[in-house]
Amino acid sequence: MTSEPESTGNSVEFPVETIRSLLFEEFAVIDGLLSELEGDAWYTPTALPGWTVKDIVSHLIGTESMLAGLDAPHVDLDVHTFGHVRNEIGAFNEHWVESLRGTPGAEVLARFRDIVARRREQLGSMTQEDFEKPADTPVGRATYGRFMRIRVFDCWLHELDIRDALGAPGDEGGPRAELASSEIFGAVPFVVGKLGKAPDGARITIELTGVLARTIHLEVRGRATPVPELSDAATSTITMDSGLFVRLAGGRARAFDHRDEIALAGDTTVGRRIVDNLAFTI
């Protein structure tokens, strides 16, 4: 799903203390958002096809339950027939969503708090050695620490989903966002080269403004490779707000609907193909 992750700037690639504390913080932020919900607000549609705010929380409960060693519930529906279910991970998610479909929001929140308390206890006893053990993750065989960084990313992205659906803006920067978005920025070479099909010899600059502002340079020499500086002038330049970039990369928005928020320069055909194919999440 992604390329190799960028360095976190630590001597240990996936430091247990950093990831654990930021995941716990993310759990608390989501809890705070949900604690304000009443009645029909739980059923507000989100950018995710077929899912309401409550469905997103059901999904979070399901993943954390799986990590806690609990089996997925049985449902009397073939979730593979749902139009938004494209793979086995999607089917797994949908079992939890369907199992809680008729459960009131307040009870779903209580379930979320219960599983978070259980996961906080489990993660609290883990060491760096535990984080470095091999594990199956959404991106294949990696380490438990990598999986937990993906959990920060997934929960953070779903926080944004909930905020966007409810019209509840929040701070999208800071340490949680930096750690979570490293999953996105680590995937940029894959997105540019494989999905965006940038041609050999292309020199791409992606200029992001906003709370996650940064400049990303890539050169395509057989494959798209990030570089500190381009060897010559950029052949294509893409400029947009980092919040929009995150939502495009997460498949929550389409570039077509945000043309006036995206500036392209140089070879705009290549630039447009890249922004039209930023979505890389499964």
Automatic annotation (TrEMBL):
Protein name in the entry: Maleylpyruvate isomerase family mycothiol-dependent enzyme
Pfam families: MDMPI_N (PF11716)
Ranges for domain Mycothiol-dependent maleylpyruvate isomerase metal-binding: 25-163
Keywords, in A-Z order: Isomerase
Top-level taxon of the source organism: Bacteria
MF GO annotations: isomerase activity
Gene3D superfamilies, per database record: dinb family like domain
Species name: Rhodococcus chondri
